Amino acid sequence: MRPASVFTSERIDHLFNDPEILNKRLFLYWGDLTDSSNLNRILEKVNPDEIYNLAAQSHVKVSFDIPEYTAEVDALGTIRFLDAIREVGLKPKFYQASTSELYGKVAEIPQDENTPFYPRSPYAVAKLYAYWIVVNYREAYNLFASNGILFNHESPRRGKTFVTRKIVRSAINIKRGIEDKLLIGNLNAKRDWGYAPEYVDAMWRILQQDVAEDFVIATGETHTVREFCDLSFKEVGYEIIWDGEGENEKGFDKTSGKLLVEVSPQYFRPTEVDLLIGNPKKAKEKLGWEPKVKFEELVKIMMDAELK
Ligand code: G4F
Q1: What share of the chain is helix, strand, coil (3-state, %, to 5)?
Q2: Can you say whether the dihedral through the CA atoms of 16, 20, 25, 27 is positive or negative?
Q3: Alpha carbons 131 and 50: distance in angstroms, whole number
Q4: Mean pLDDT of 82-91
Q5: Residue nearest to ligand 1 atom 21, measured at CA
Q6: Does 128 contact ligand 1 (Cβ within 6 A)?
């Protein structure tokens, strides 16, 4: 757990508050990827079979504001972890949360394990270092270390500042009269959105292999942010009619004419990743992994959970 002066366990409270689980099946330690000795101590104490390095400053837009910290955690944090493993002399399997953001200004469509990288944010550049240091440590020291190149994966637990959860929450709040309108950034961005629980299953499968390798995990479908808005608002009875272009685009309710969505440049990124669509063929062949939840069902799952 990352130390903080406020409670940060909201998303695991159901485990945290269960006396059959906490300190019986689930053990928590304070940890920080900027602190090598802390990592060494945790590793010595836990002696894990598998490590999933999901720790990161993971917000792409925020990485433009705190680039150095993003590199410190996302890039150097990964080498600290790998080096701690070597230093403590353990041989756990290591999973690295690599990302479709590595493809950035995409060199080909769809993207697979052989597509060249072209990162477009301080976040993606930091993750590029992490990707290669995992490959390097695998080759240099024979560590079982694998990259999962995961495309966007969403669920009701998604942080509120990421676009899917933000849209879902606004659609419902607007319907309930407690929010005026949704302010949004680039409506034309295309993402390959999958369902997070299935992606966690893929992470686990990656570490159950006999040989460490890197895998793309994706649905193979791409949709715009605008489409995500259309479907979410439809769930609460609005049909959006879009008007205008770029910074001036707005979405109105077809029946009432009410303004629902407005573009705000404050959410634009200095450099954007316009289009992501992954090819999960290798994962299907070698991991027996296939995504079941596709775009429409994903929106419905998130809307249903938020409504509850
Ligand atoms: O939801 P997003 O912020 O996710 P993004 O940037 O694709 O990154 C997420 O997925 C990556 C791949 O798995 C991870 F590596 C990364 O850590 C993170 O989890 O934005 C999605 C798209 C972008 O093109 C963005 O410009 O939505 C666009 N967008 C438009 N309006 C917005 C907004 N994004 C956010 N966060 N907020 C907006 O108002």
Answers
A1: 45, 15, 40
A2: positive
A3: 18
A4: 91
A5: 163
A6: no
